[in-house]
Amino acid sequence: MIKGVIFDLDGVLVSTDELHFKAWKMLAEELGITNFTKDDNARQKGVSRMASLEVVLEKAEDTYSYQEKLELADRKNNYFIKLLENLTDRDVLPGVIETLSLLRKMGLRIGIGSASKNTPLILKETGLESYFDEVSCGLDITRSKPDPEVFLIAAKKLELSPKECLVVEDSNAGVVAAKAADMKTLGVGTEYKKLGTDYEALTLQNEIDWSAIVCNAL
Ligand code: B16
Ligand code: MG
Questions:
Q1: Last residue within a domain, chosen from 63, 86, 109
Q2: Ligand nearest to the CA of 112
Q3: What residue owns the CA closest to ligand 1's atom 12?
Q4: For residue 207, what pLDDT is reported?
Q5: Is the CB of 49 under 6 A from ligand 1?
Q6: Which of 65, 86, 107 is the last residue before a domain boundary?
Q7: Domain count within the chain
Q8: Ligand 1 atom, smallest distance to 150 CA
Q9: Which one of 9, 10, 41 would you pick to mutate in the ligand 1 pocket, going by the greatest count of ligand atoms within 8 A of its CB?
Q10: What is the CATH number of the domain that holds 55?
């Protein structure tokens, strides 16, 4: 029986993925990389800031020390935070509020499991804060998705066992992490069919039989 739902943030609840792309593109261009593409950006989904930087640097001519990489990641984050200033409740993805309200009515515990260290800021800017019982994010973890740590911490905070949790994810790294945590998975987003999840839906606006999912009846 599912007693809690843990949501990924970027790409599942909020359309911050476009802002990550813009911020990485700005950094890439400063480094002389003019061919940083959406395909490169797709490989950054769900993975940590430092792992995302490595995707950019694959196209760089120069090599960088660890200290320099920290500075570059920081620079990108400053661009990203600046872009987040314009984030509002209009950036919450379709069907999210309705889904969170429904799950609340069903008596489920609701959590966040996000790699982003900017999770508290994003929840505040979009007005989503009050919908969640617990938040587990980049600030809580030492190992990023595909490691299961972020979801295991979320389950612990929700006082549930992994088997009582369902994870909603849009990235391959996130689905691998949820499965490694021994949790059920629902895939959403444009790539949902490739994720190999237990359940799938293009967006949270689609008809999802939550009662059947909760009872493990599907
Ligand atoms: P930050 P999620 C992830 O969020 C993003 O998908 C990924 O692109 C980003 O690199 C990561 O957060 C870290 O974000 O730089 O803000 O700490 O999908 O796990 O909600
Ligand atoms: Mg995501």
A1: 86
A2: 1
A3: 116
A4: 85
A5: yes
A6: 86
A7: 2
A8: 19
A9: 10
A10: 1.10.150.240
117 three-class SS:
coil
Range of the domain at 134: 4-15+90-216
Residue 40 alpha carbon to ligand 1 centre in Å: 14
Structure tokens belonging to residue 97? 């509020």
The pLDDT-based confidence of 218 (bands split at 50, 70, 90) is low
Query: Based on the domain organization, do 206 and 180 belong to the same domain?
Result: yes
DSSP letter for each residue of 4-44: EEEE--BTTTB-THHHHHHHHHHHHHHTT-----HHHHHTT
Residue 49 structure tokens: 């800031």
Say whether both 55 and 9 belong to one domain. no
Do 71 and 46 share a structural domain? Answer: yes
**If phi over 0 gives left and psi between -120 and 50 gives alpha, with beta otherwise, what is residue 149?**
alpha
| Pair 124, 178 in one domain | yes
What is the predicted pLDDT for the residue at 216? 80
Write out pLDDT tens, residues 42-62: 999 999 999 999 999 999 999
**8 CB less than 6 Å from ligand 1?**
yes
| Mutation pick for ligand 1 pocket among 7, 114, 142 (CB with most ligand atoms within 8 Å) | 114
